[in-house]
Amino acid sequence: MxxxxxxxxxxxxxxxxxxxxxxxxxxxxxxxIWFALGALAALISSLLKAPVWLQVLWxxxxxxATLLITRPLAxxxxxxxxxxxxxxxxxxxxxxxxxxxxxxxxxxAVSVGGKIWTARMAEKDGRAEKxxxxxxxxxxxxxxxxxxxxxxxx
Length: 154
Known about the structure:
Layout (H helix, E strand, L loop, with lengths): L1 H25 L6 H15 L4 H28 L14 E9 L4 E6 L2 E7 L5 E2 L4 E8 L2 E6 L6
Parallel strand pairs: 3-6
Antiparallel strand pairs: 1-2, 1-4, 1-5, 2-3, 5-6
Helix pairs in contact: 1-2, 2-3
């Protein structure tokens, strides 16, 4: 009877591991690999005839340990790739107002690096007249956020 129970638990852990690996393969990013490793540890303990409570303990301990150890690295190197574009080069550049900027009215455009951008002032109620030279500070969506140029202090 104990042998059937051990065989049943081994099958359970094997099926759990396979299902978790299939989920991992279908999901974008890392989502269940840690639990698949926990199921592998529980499967090994089952094959070594460990009691069920110890198999479950191994599953949770190994899952938690691998999650805590590898999740920060996985987030840093696998799931968080920022794609930089040429648009990032506009930040910090001088730009010329080609259409008066009025944050309240939601209008304005600037030219920077030969490209025309929809623009808004960094200040909440900011305004700038056509022809003014400003500095690009960031990009929000498809808008270039600009501010008055601060002259270098000598």
